[in-house]
Amino acid sequence: MQKLIRTLSSGLLVAALLTPGVASAAGGFLPYSDISNHWAKASIIRGVQAGLFAAGTDAPHFYPNRDMSRAEFLALMDRLYNGGQYQLYPLTFLSEHAEWSKGEGFDQPYLPYKDVDRLTWVYNPTLRVAIVLDRLYGPNAIQQVFPGEEMKPDQPITQEEAAKLMQMFTMSPDSSKAWEEVKAWKWLEGDRTDKLKRGEAAAAADRMITYLVQDTILPLLDYDGTKFPMVPEIEELFPYFETYTAPKSKQEAAYVSAVDAIRNHEDSEATFELLRALADTTFANRIGLHFYLSWDPGTEISTNLDEAMSAIDAYFANKIILPDTLRLLSANVYDLALQQAGKDQKQFAKVLERLSAYEQKVKPNSKEWEALAIYLGALEIKSGQTEKALERYKQFSANNPEALLNACYYLYQEGRLEEASALLATVKPNASDSRMVQLGKLLRQELTSLQEQSAIVSDLGYSLRRLDNADSYQVQGEAVLSGFSFKYTQEIDQRSQVSRLNGFYQSPQKLVSDKLATYTDGSKHIQYSYDSEKQRWDRHSTNNLDFLHEWVGALPVAERANKLHARYFKQTFGEMEVITEWIPGSVLAEQSASLLLERGKVKDVPLFMNKYYINKSTDRVVKHTWRYEEIYSSDEYVAYSGTDQYDYAKSIKLSIPEEVRKGVTP
C-alpha cells in the first residue's frame, strides 16, 4: 500500500545508518576496551552500530587519542556516503550500480596517486570517494584535497583536509570556504592545522549522521516531482491502539493476532474476516478495528476510505487527546486518497471535504490540530487550493518542519521568494530543537541560491555559447541508452559544420562490441552512419528529432529556465564552477505535447538532470554529465545517461570523405 511504500522509502537512510555493526555494542557492552572514560565514547559506540567502525575480537581497541590517517578518514567518508548517498543523488546522478564507473561502464576507474596500491585496503574506499568528488566537482577533484602524485595515505589528516572532504554534505557553494562551512555546522571543533584524532572523527561522524537522517541537503528541490506536499514520517505504522497484557481475552488475542499478521505481511483474507467479525461485536477497540479494515486489499478503495474515516470517528468518540494517533489516522486517509485519485483527481476534493469536517472537533493551533492540519493542507494542494494551503501552513510553520517546508516550497513555486525569506525570518526555534535549527539553515542557504537563478542562467548560457562558437573541439564520451553502452570520440569542425564520431557500442543482446562511426553534415542536415553488420554507409536526415532530450538540448538556457521552469545550483571547487540543472518532468511533458518526435508523443518524464563543469579561467565547458528518463505514448521507456569531456586544444579540420558519400546505399 502507498502508506507502506512511503514509510519504507523515507526510512532507508535511517536503516542504513543505524544497523548495528556488532551485537555487543547494542547490548550495553563496550565494543572497545579503551573508550570507557573517553569523552567521545557515546559517538564511538553509535559509530560501531552504524557500521562506520569495525569491532570485535580482531579489533579490541579503538585508540581514540591517536591521529586518524588520511586513509582511515577516507574509509569513514566512504561508509557515511554509502548510508547517505541518496542525499547526494540529485547532485551526483550516481546510482549504487554506477559508483565504480569512471564514465558509464567501459573503463575501470583509476586514482591519480602512485602510493595507493590496488591490492591494499586503502584503494577501494579512496577510489569511491574520488569518484563521488569527481562527479560533484569535476575531473580529479580529490587533488584539491590531497595535491600531487602521492596521497600519503598513512599521514595524519588535518582538520582542514577533513573539512574539504566533509563539505560535500554541506551544500557549500564555494570550496574555499569549506572550513568555515563545516565549522558552522559544528562537525569539527579544532583549528585548521590540528591533526584530527580518531575520537574527534567519531564525534564528527555522529553529528553528520544526525544531520543526514533529518533533512535532505536541498530541502526545496523536488527533482522527480514526488516530494511535495511534504507530510510527516510515521514512526509507528502498526500500533495496537490499546495496551494488551497477558492473559488476553479471546477477542483481544484474535485482534492482536490479526494486527501481527498485517505487521509481518502475513495477512490473508481470513485476517480481515476475523476483524470484520470482531467489528460486529462489542469489542472496545473501534479505532484499531476500522484502521486495519482499511488495509483490506480485497475491498474497493472507497470502502477502505470509509473504514479509515470511521477510525477517526472512533478516535473522537473516545474523547482522549492523542495527537500522534490522530496523525496516523489522518495519514491513512491521505494515503488512500492518493490511491483513489490515481483514477480520478476529483477525489482529492471529496476526501478534503470529509476530512475537513473534523477540524471543528480540535482546539485551534493545538498539537492535535497540527496533526490534522498537515494533511488538510496536503489535500488542499492536491485539490488546487494552493493559497488556502499556504495560509494554513503559515499558522504552524514556526514549530512544524513539514509545514515550514511546504510553505517555503509553494511560495517559491509562485515566485514569492521574498515572502518565503520573510516567513523564514520569523522562525526562531529553540537551540535544543536540532531539526528546526538545521532546517532553517538549509532553507536560508537554498533561498539564497534561488534568488541567484538569473545570474547562474546567464553564466551557463555564456559558457554554452562559447562552446557553440568554438572553431573546433574534441569530445571524449561514454553513455548508456536503454541498455546499450557507448564509448566514443567525436571531433567537431564548426567552420565547415562537419563532425566525425568514432567508437564502439555494446548491445545487451550481444557479447561483442560493434563499431560506431558517423559523419554529420550540419549545413545539409545529413548524417552518414556505418552499418557494421551490412558493412555499408547509410544516410538519413537530422531534421527530425528522435527523443525529447534532443529538443531540450537545442533550447537556449534562458528558454529552459523560463519555458521549462528549469532550476539551477552553482558550486565552485578549485578551478571549476559546477552548475547542476533540474527540469520538472511535468512541465516537460506539458510543453512537449505539440512536438513531433520519432519515438511518438511524450507520456511522462520521471527524471531530467544535467551537470556542466566550467573552467573558471576560460569560461569553457570542460565536462557535461546527464541523466534522463522519458516515457512515450507507446509505453517505451528510455533511460539515457552519460558523460562528455571537451578538449579545445586540437585544431580540427574536417570534410566528409567521398568514399563515405559514394558508399551510401541508394
Q: Can you tell me about this structure?
A:
The protein has 666 residues and is an alpha+beta fold. It is 43% helix and 15% strand. The chain is built from 25 helices and 11 strands. It has helices at 2-10, 12-18, 23-26, 41-49, 70-92, 123-137, 159-166, 178-184, 198-212, 250-263, 269-279, 286-293, 301-318, 323-340, 347-356, 367-382, 386-396, 401-413, 417-425, 434-450, 453-469, 548-554, 557-563, 585-591, 658-663, and strands at 472-481, 484-493, 498-506, 514-521, 526-531, 536-541, 567-573, 576-582, 602-615, 620-632, 637-647. Strands 6-5-4-3-2-1-11-10-9-8-7 form an 11-stranded antiparallel beta sheet. A hairpin with a 4-residue loop joins strand 4 (514-521) and strand 5. The radius of gyration is 28 Å and the shape is globular. The relative contact order is 0.08.
SSE layout:
Elements: H1 2-10, H2 12-18, H3 23-26, H4 41-49, H5 70-92, H6 123-137, H7 159-166, H8 178-184, H9 198-212, H10 250-263, H11 269-279, H12 286-293, H13 301-318, H14 323-340, H15 347-356, H16 367-382, H17 386-396, H18 401-413, H19 417-425, H20 434-450, H21 453-469, E1 472-481, E2 484-493, E3 498-506, E4 514-521, E5 526-531, E6 536-541, H22 548-554, H23 557-563, E7 567-573, E8 576-582, H24 585-591, E9 602-615, E10 620-632, E11 637-647, H25 658-663
Antiparallel strand pairs: 1-2, 1-11, 2-3, 3-4, 4-5, 5-6, 7-8, 8-9, 9-10, 10-11
Helix pairs in contact: 2-5, 4-9, 5-6, 5-9, 7-8, 10-11, 11-12, 12-13, 13-14, 14-15, 14-16, 15-16, 16-17, 17-18, 18-19, 18-20, 19-20
